[in-house]
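Human
Can I borrow your eye for a moment on a structure tokenisation matter? Give me a protein, with the fold worked out from its sequence. Write it directly below this note and I will take it from there.

Assistant
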Amino acid sequence: MNALGRLLAVGSEWGSYAAPVAGSGRRAVAREVAEEASETIGKQLARQASRELKPVVIGENMKTRVEPYARRIGAETIDDWLAGRKWTLELNAVWVQEMMKQGRRVIDIGPDFARRAKGVAPSTAYGLERKLLKGYPNYERRFLRWRKLRGGNPEIDRHEPWHYILDEF
């Protein structure tokens, strides 16, 4: 089949739009070419989708909040990026900058308000992450806060009494 015959296929439903060309079987050939092209494009889109980068999750309390939430939604954390390396605050900053450079969606599940209410100081690493992400367009806040020690994420902190406290309003 010549190049002109191949170009007769147009649109996503190429075979149905193929124009008849003089000679027998040309429309059938055009339809076949269109189906082959659709299959090829479909495979290319599937490969592209598999390369899309997962979102990352930040927040306080990696073991009981951040990691379980990330696994539940199919996201990643700094631990995935470290791949066995020893964590440092400097590597944490590099990770945040790399995620921003890649254009990743960053989901912030917030502070561990229950831990803070017990007198535990805020996480330095989480504070650094929030500072570096200020103004980042793909940042997504997924927690509520009112007052200094009240708030949480209803998807994670269900066992915490924060969501029953309505007397503050």
Summary: The longest strand covers residues 56-58.
